[in-house]
């Protein structure tokens, strides 16, 4: 069974510089019915105004994966890392025993559209670390491109401390992609752009959907729809 | 029990003291405290003409990223970690106004039970520590060896640990 988390049902926060939608409870948005899905604790869809952003703040015991759809996000942290994250790049920060970082829009004129993902780690007090990878956009077209997982794959991906694999995929309108979910595993799909059908269930931009494989493996069929197809993130979770 | 709240109050002009403040915050987070940063604002027009272009760029960022500490920040904190440059003077314009606020709160009995720590870059510098000692805090000295961020991290962690222990015992 597929459970849909509709875009408009997500938590919403709008301040002077931030327009954010929260799939799960976050900051002042608290909905006990939507706290997490398996190890996926936070899935935020953020629009950040030019030159603004999140000032220095701390994290502990969390795997934080950031994916930018539009613009550039400047990251600075207490380990001395300073990088701008752009589309088709992935940042993974393991907060572990403690880290302080800031994330601000690197541009004074263009907004940033970013997806921030928090995954609960498999262990506490890990050594904090930072990774950033980039990939060619063609690598996510018509296939599931691994961007984060518990081990290094055949192509560069960030490594996170949890049995979760995150894939990015773009589909043209009418293009079909299949994915098998192993028995006992769970999947969350987030539509980043455009529209898609997931086993016949229509999903639009901003929608999320979850499914669990149970005792048998589950076959998922995605078909891009709408004028410009779609981009999705697929989470394969223990 | 609610998490211990640690307020990191600092003044940095070109980023060196900010690094100490960040390190102290990491130490507090390691001790499972919640942290918030407050940067003392420049008073008047900060004369940056003698500073390097890199310093001016960092200064601009510091002014943008941090807000100034207020009374509410002090009151809600279980511990305050003060971080100052090597040339700290209590009468310097950046510090005077904030220290006056702290003194007012002390006089009103509002700092009772609060922990504080003073961090400067050089372990031999104690001007900031002597200043906060007079303000009625439970002052946590550094026991770490070494200099700079490593010592600041250990000091921030210890301040948070002691504030948590006091909170549990309260």
Topology:
The complex is a heterodimer of chains A (238) and B (170).
Chain A: E1 3-5, E2 11-14, E3 18-22, E4 40-48, E5 53-59, E6 63-70, E7 73-77, E8 82-85, E9 89-94, E10 99-105, E11 112-119, E12 129-134, E13 145-149, E14 158-159, E15 164-171, E16 176-181, E17 186-198, E18 201-203, E19 208-212, E20 218-237
Parallel strand pairs in A: 13-14
Antiparallel strand pairs in A: 1-19, 2-3, 3-4, 4-11, 5-10, 6-9, 6-11, 7-8, 7-10, 9-12, 13-15, 15-20, 16-20, 17-18, 17-19, 17-20
Chain B: E1 5-10, H1 16-30, E2 34-39, H2 53-65, H3 71-76, E3 79-83, H4 93-107, E4 115-119, H5 127-133, E5 138-139, H6 148-169
Parallel strand pairs in B: 1-2, 1-3, 3-4, 4-5
Helix pairs in contact in B: 1-6
Protein model, in words:
The complex is a heterodimer of chains A (238) and B (170). Helix content of chain A is 0%, strand content 56%. Chain A has 238 residues and is mainly β. Chain A has a single domain, classed as Jelly Rolls. In chain A, the strands form three sheets. In chain A, strands 1, 13, 14, 15, 16, 17, 18, 19 and 20 form a nine-stranded mixed sheet that branches. Chain B has one domain: Flavodoxin domain (Rossmann fold). A five-stranded parallel sheet of chain B has the order 2-1-3-4-5. In chain B, strand 3 (79-83), helix 4 (93-107) and strand 4 form a beta-alpha-beta unit. In chain B, helix 1 crosses helix 6 (148-169). Chain B is globular and about 50 Å long. In chain B, 41% of the residues are buried. At the A-B interface, strand 5 and strand 10 of A face helix 1 and strand 2 of B.
Search tags:
heterodimer; A: 238 residues; mainly beta; Jelly Rolls; 9-stranded mixed β-sheet; 7-stranded antiparallel β-sheet; 0% helix; globular; B: 170 residues; alpha/beta; Rossmann fold; 5-stranded parallel β-sheet
Cα-to-Cα separation, first versus last residue of chain A: 17 Å
Report the mean per-residue pLDDT of chain B as an integer: 93
Total domain count of chain B: 1
Highest-level CATH class of chain A: Mainly Beta
């Amino acid at each position: 069974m597929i459970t849909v988390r509709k875009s408009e049902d997500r938590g919403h926060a709008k301040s002077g510089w931030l327009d954010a939608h929260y799939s799960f409870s976050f900051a002042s948005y608290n909905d006990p019915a939507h706290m997490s899905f398996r190890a996926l604790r936070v899935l935020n869809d953020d629009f950040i105004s030019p030159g603004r952003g999140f000032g220095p703040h701390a994290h502990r015991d969390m795997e934080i994966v950031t994916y930018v759809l539009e613009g550039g996000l400047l990251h600075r942290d207490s380990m001395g890392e300073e990088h701008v994250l752009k589309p088709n790049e992935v940042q993974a920060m393991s907060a572990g025993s403690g880290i302080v970082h800031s994330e601000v829009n690197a541009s004074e004129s263009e907004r940033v559209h970013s997806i921030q993902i928090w995954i609960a780690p498999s262990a506490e007090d890990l050594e904090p670390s930072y990774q950033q990878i980039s990939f060619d956009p063609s690598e996510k077209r018509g296939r599931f491109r691994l961007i984060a997982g518990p081990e290094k794959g055949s192509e560069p991906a960030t490594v996170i401390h949890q049995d979760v694999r995150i894939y990015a995929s773009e589909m043209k309108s009418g293009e079909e992609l299949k994915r098998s979910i192993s028995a006992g595993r769970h999947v969350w799909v987030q539509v980043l752009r455009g529209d898609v059908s997931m086993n016949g269930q229509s999903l639009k931009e901003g929608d999320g959907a979850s499914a669990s494989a149970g005792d048998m493996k589950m076959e998922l069929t995605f078909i891009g729809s709408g004028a410009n197809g779609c981009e999705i993130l697929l989470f394969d979770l223990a | 029990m609610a998490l211990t709240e640690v307020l990191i109050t600092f003044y940095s002009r070109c980023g060196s003291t900010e690094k100490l403040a960040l390190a102290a915050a990491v130490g507090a987070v390691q001790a499972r405290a919640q942290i918030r940063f407050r940067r003392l604002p420049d008073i008047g027009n900060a004369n940056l003409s003698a500073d390097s272009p890199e310093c001016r760029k960092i200064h601009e960022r510091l002014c943008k990223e941090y807000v100034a500490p207020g009374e509410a920040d002090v009151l809600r904190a279980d511990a305050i970690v003060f971080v100052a440059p090597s040339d700290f003077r209590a009468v310097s314009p950046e510090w005077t106004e904030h220290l006056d606020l702290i003194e007012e709160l002390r006089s009103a009995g509002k700092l009772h039970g609060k922990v504080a720590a003073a961090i400067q870059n050089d372990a031999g510098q104690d001007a900031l520590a002597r200043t906060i000692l007079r303000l009625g805090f439970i002052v946590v000295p550094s026991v770490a060896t070494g200099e700079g961020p490593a010592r600041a991290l250990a000091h921030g962690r210890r301040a948070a640990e002691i504030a948590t222990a006091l909170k549990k015992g309260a």
